[in-house]
Amino acid sequence: MLIDGKAIAARLKETLRGELEAIGGVAGIATVLVGEDVPAAVYQRRIDRGAREIGMASRPEQLPADATLGQVIGKVAELDADPDISGILVLRPLPAHLPESRIFAALPPLKDVEALHPLNAGLLSLGMPRFIPSTPAAAFHMLDRHTEAAGRDLESAFDGANLVLVGRSNNVGKPAAILGLQRNATVVSCHHHTSQAGHLEEFTRGADILIVAVGVPGLITGDMVGEGAIVIDIGINAVDDGAGGVRLVGDVDTASVEPVAEAVSPVPGGVGPITDVWVLRNAVAAAKLSLAPAGQLVLR
Amino acid sequence: MLIDGKAIAARLKETLRGELEAIGGVAGIATVLVGEDVPAAVYQRRIDRGAREIGMASRPEQLPADATLGQVIGKVAELDADPDISGILVLRPLPAHLPESRIFAALPPLKDVEALHPLNAGLLSLGMPRFIPSTPAAAFHMLDRHTEAAGRDLESAFDGANLVLVGRSNNVGKPAAILGLQRNATVVSCHHHTSQAGHLEEFTRGADILIVAVGVPGLITGDMVGEGAIVIDIGINAVDDGAGGVRLVGDVDTASVEPVAEAVSPVPGGVGPITDVWVLRNAVAAAKLSLAPAGQLVLR
């Protein structure tokens, strides 16, 4: 079966509306696009539209491709000072002359909804997350909803399960490993060198849960997946559609994997729509954090 | 063969003497023991002795078992203000009433040689470590020295190797996973639930490199290890010696593993002595960090 990411995202959006209402609607998301990367620009518009739909403040900012480090950090500082903005997202990829790590370290930690600041990455890795980056969060949200729908107990469903990750990036593979360990799964982190050494298939075939995030169209085929596995596809790749245009495909060859797997998430319509909502949800979580200290000051 | 941790530690200590000399000997380690945990007290004395041996300042501090959170954090602040101290180590276990995470978050990040502060844990997980916690650092130092001694190229020796970790703690298992990924190994993180699910042996048998840190005496036996594996034992357990005393054993049953493995690290005399030196080495690294800004101020 295919997991319907759009339906899960729609339900999550309803939850989010309630959460936003509960804090009086005071949350806002700012996105910073530097340069003209097309997928990043599309993502920025999607977040902006999603925020407006649920009545959340949105500030999509654009800087030219030749923006200096100071200009980007200055923009972040300006957004930090905006009381309507609870969450700030600097979109990737950044132009090559901008050092990611300096920009991420300049993010205000309480508005750093993608946990890119080392402090938030550390809290996550120590098992005390303030924010969970939206893509791995969305993957696990999908996994949880599928697990519930299959009638399994969320409290123990992942205990000792073989969770195989393909990809070791800071924004997906590594946080997903942490989230998997927190759910008591055995976690196998595979990547390019696993494949080079000829071991990728051994590991993917043994997976109870397979999460793939490498950006290689159709890398995972049916013969690489064990009977009954749950396969979550995080890749989004634009490929030639044979008619002069492009179409989006994932890292998983859904057609050959679906007959073997218990469930597989499609691309498009899988993890993507859930991620879009999760970004906004993290902005609401950030607003709650910024409200908390004020609440604690009420002495009576 | 057994890997001689003492010999590796002795060579590392010589390197360290040179590093200390290069910065004019200006480095110091402070250790904070809260309460009367015997292994922690033994560890504190070992660090103190090691520091004095190489002419490094050492400040072993003791607080009573009923010390308040404020007293512990106050002591840390006092050590932060001491210009002779470049590295601070709060020894574990802490008494149950003290919240570890609050104490670690109060460590001055530039003196936090065990990378316990979330900021340093984050820098490590993002692949930009300021400090590498001494126990996993020592395990990989041992692995590197063994790899060199076996005539393999350190640059590529771990590419696509199956690195199996048993244990998922914040101070060993998780940083070891990060260090393994940085060396291009496929990393498998096993733990209690892997064992409960009956999968531990499958994974340990497939390991090219097996690192064990769980605190279960003799958990890993020869039948659980593949031919030619390298086995690093991080466990240190005090067990009844059958004569009214105790003796130290690791998590690996060395007698049955040695004939199967390419190499195995013994306990005692394995990772432990290297760890002791690494703590001091991190204090020298911290001193370099604290010297760096002053050096940058010399304008000419």
UniProtKB/TrEMBL annotation, chains A, B:
Reaction it catalyzes: (6R)-5,10-methylene-5,6,7,8-tetrahydrofolate + NADP(+) = (6R)-5,10-methenyltetrahydrofolate + NADPH; (6R)-5,10-methenyltetrahydrofolate + H2O = (6R)-10-formyltetrahydrofolate + H(+)
The record's section on Pfam families has: THF_DHG_CYH, THF_DHG_CYH_C
**Gene3D superfamilies linked:** Leucine Dehydrogenase, chain A, domain 1, NAD(P)-binding Rossmann-like Domain
UniProt: NADP(+) binding residues: 167-169, 236
Provide the Tetrahydrofolate dehydrogenase/cyclohydrolase catalytic domain boundaries: 3-114
Which GO terms fall under biological process for this protein?
A: L-histidine biosynthetic process; methionine biosynthetic process; purine nucleotide biosynthetic process; tetrahydrofolate interconversion
Please indicate if the UniProt record lists NADP as a keyword.
Answer: yes
Q: Which UniProt keywords apply?
A: Amino-acid biosynthesis, Histidine biosynthesis, Hydrolase, Methionine biosynthesis, Multifunctional enzyme, NADP, One-carbon metabolism, Oxidoreductase, Purine biosynthesis
UniProt key word NADP: yes
- Which E.C. number(s) belong to this protein? 1.5.1.5, 3.5.4.9
Q: Which pathway, metabolic or otherwise, does it act in?
A: One-carbon metabolism; tetrahydrofolate interconversion
Its GO CC terms are: cytosol
Q: Which one of the record's GO molecular function terms can you name?
A: methylenetetrahydrofolate dehydrogenase (NADP+) activity
Domain Tetrahydrofolate dehydrogenase/cyclohydrolase NAD(P)-binding per the UniProt entry, residue ranges: 133-289
How this chain assembles, per its entry, is: Homodimer.
Family, as annotated = Belongs to the tetrahydrofolate dehydrogenase/cyclohydrolase family.
Q: What does this protein do?
A: Catalyzes the oxidation of 5,10-methylenetetrahydrofolate to 5,10-methenyltetrahydrofolate and then the hydrolysis of 5,10-methenyltetrahydrofolate to 10-formyltetrahydrofolate.
**Name of this protein:** Bifunctional protein FolD
Species the sequence originates in: Capillimicrobium parvum
Instruction: From the UniProt record, report the name of the gene that encodes this protein.
Output: folD_1
